[in-house]
Amino acid sequence: MAEKRRPRRWLRWLSLLAFVGAALLAKGYWNATRDPVIRTAAVEVADWPAGQPPLKLLLLSDIHVAGPDMPPERLVRIVADLNQLKPDLVLIAGDLVSEKRSATHIYSPAEVVAPLGKLDAPLGVVVAPGNHDHWFRPDALRGELEMRGIRVLQNEAVKLGPLLVGAIDDDYSGHDDLPATLAAMDRLGPGVPLLLTHSPDIVPDLPRPVVAILAGHTHCGQIRFPFIGALTYVSRYGDRFACGAIDDNGQRVFVGAGLGTSLLPLRYLTPPDAWLITLKPKDSHP
User: Fold this and answer.
1) Pairing of strands 212-215, 224-225
2) How many CB atoms lie within 10 A of CB 185?
3) pTM higher than 0.90 for the full model?
4) pLDDT at residue 25 in the model
5) Which of 11, 164, 254, 283 has the fewest CB atoms within 10 Å, measured from its CB?
6) Among 131, 139, 119, residue whose Cα is nearest residue 174
7) What is the rounded CA–CA span in Å between residue 223 and residue 219?
8) Which residues have C-beta within 8 Å of that of residue 130, sequence separation ≥ 6?
9) Mapped to the 3 state alphabet, what secondary structure does 100-156 carry?
10) What is the spatial distance between Cα 27 and Cα 239, in angstroms, rounded to a whole number?
11) Domain edges within the chain
């Protein structure tokens, strides 16, 4: 009798493992497609222009438009919700697209960019390209963005109100030029300096501090395990710039988890997010 029951016992264990595996995959997909967490921070600026009200910056990164987890329809809903935050300036730290092998659909540049054209901010929207943007029809993406009034800066800078926004092209794919970006900022004259970059790995090479560096690329690990952490942050510096609000030897750095996913449409312990960062004069009160 014992010999006959043994196969049934193994079958029950296999069924249980299959159920647990399916539940974990479903939870990972739900995590990946949930509404982004809105994280907030305030940065006090010592040389804030007199009479200038505080400004709200919205940092987005790693949107990775692709099926199944980030179709354009989902991005339309996210953009509508983000507009309710009433940011003064939107900064997008690259990787608008995804051509991952697990994608169920790859969208055209027009389909990728159209929802972003609905972002509403008085000082506009600025994009610094990411590695996936360079790997997937970069000229077409740039054309679609500019057609909708979105600035694409590649080792360039622009003055927007009191802000000097320098945007560094992607470090991961070797398109970055930090000296050129800083020189472009210097030519703009005085202002509150910010740097937008896809990868935070440029931070140690910065010769002088800026008010804030805004980045993405790491996905905060995307798939993290309890007690173990993430398999990788895709950074030369390990977890130094892994995620969130960072004080790196006095330099303020914000690294977003991103809205979409790379490789697999799954997230564990790393919900999608966006950062709303308020710049205000030093020692002011909320």
Assistant:
1) unpaired
2) 22
3) yes
4) 79
5) 283
6) 131
7) 9
8) 61, 62, 93, 94, 95, 96, 170, 172, 198, 199, 216, 217
9) CCCCCECCCHHHHHHHHHHCCCCCCEEECCCHHHHHCCHHHHHHHHHHCCCEECCCE
10) 25
11) 34-281
